[in-house]
Amino acid sequence: MRSPSSPPSDHPFLAIQGIRRSYGSVVAVEAVTLDVARGEFVTFLGPSGSGKSTTLYVIAGFQEPNSGDVLIEGRSILNTPSNKRNIGMVFQRYTLFPQMTIAENIGFPLKVRRRSRADIDARVKVMLRLVQLEAYADRKPAQLSGGQQQRVALARALAYEPPLLLMDEPLSALDKSLRDELQHEIKRVHHETGVTILYVTHDQEEALHLSDRIALFRQGRIEQLGTGRDLYDAPASRFVAGFIGHSNFMPCRIDRERGAVDGAILLDDGTPVSGVSLAAMPAQCERGVLMVRPDAIRLHNPDSAPAGAILGTIDEASFRGEAMQYSVATAWGESLTVRTPCGGTGRARVGERVALAWQPEQAQIFPN
Question: For residue 343, what are the CA distances in angstroms to 9, 317, 328, 340?
Fold first, then answer.
């Protein structure tokens, strides 16, 4: 059961302050700063080599930073050996002891800490119940499925009640159905225990499903930090817009003389786009890319299309269960993706001429 909230503190539970880690001339992490509240679930998301795992290893004590600090409840832990930091860790590889039973694996960190046999037995029972493996206590790891072994690894990491749990790509070796199942289990365990979790993944759907907040990494830095909705609805850069969800990017130019304040955005076929803020664009920037999500675009009959609609021809249509997905060829030779809910409005056909439109607030512009 989730423990009661701690009294207010002048310090965040976990503070990562300006961490830098390099390997010779290669900088893996640069100026990573992040505060994490007690009980929060924060995911480090990003492509391979973006610095997310290195940051996690610095917190765990497996890597030493060149500069910066890591504090738990206001106290630096950098001079504390990794085995003394009281931090739980779950890896992609389960690292279970094959000769031990499941109960012995879970109880091992308690045995190392010289807990009494009665305490170990009681705690192991609690953890087996938490991960719903009570019936498997006497089995060996080889007798369990991959998903069950990862549950054991999770139970072992939580057995000694660490205040912080680090998880590095724990589900990447599992197939999709098992990943979905384990994501549900991890959310349930987080809710029941209240442990603070830092979770590393390159899977955006996993991050969106699990996290209170997401730190999206790029080239050793945090590109954007926020909720999944923040990153999806208001991406801070073209990289974020392209990494979170699916996006259409349309080359455009900016003619500031056409507007008294914001100017005008013109697509490559000359179609003007109004109502999109240019606040994020440098004043001297004349070229950019307009971003619109596929599910924000609506299909219209060209004869009754709203002003500013883009004309195109459907060159592909595919059924995606809850939605139809269309590829639409534009007049300037680019293909745009459109997703519309199934049912109610009929389906467009390959070869059909259509007009595409969206609400101005559903589009963003980024420097080219």
Answer: 52, 15, 20, 9
SS3 188: helix
Contact 301, 309 (CB under 8 A): no
The residue assigned the tokens 């850069």 is: 237
C-beta separation of 342 from 323 below 8 A:
yes
- pLDDT class of 341 with cuts at 50, 70, 90: confident
Give me the residues paired with residue 215 across strands. 44, 225
Which value, in Å, is the radius of gyration of the alpha carbons in the chain?
Answer: 25
Task: Tell me the β-bridge partners of 304.
Answer: none
Mean pLDDT of 48-77: 97
- Residues 179, 173: Cα–Cα separation, whole Å: 9
Classify 331 as helix, strand or coil: coil
Three-state DSSP class for residue 134: helix
| CA–CA dist 50, 7 (Å, integer) | 36
- Global pTM reads 0.89
Distance of CA 49 to the CA centre of its chain: 15
Confidence of residue 268 (pLDDT cuts 50, 70, 90): confident
Classified as helix, coil or strand, 295 is helix
Compute the distance between CA of residue 214 and CA of residue 66 in angstroms, rounded to an integer: 25
Q: What is the pLDDT of residues 178-225, one digit of tens each?
A: 889 899 999 999 999 999 999 999 999 999 999 999 999 999 999 999
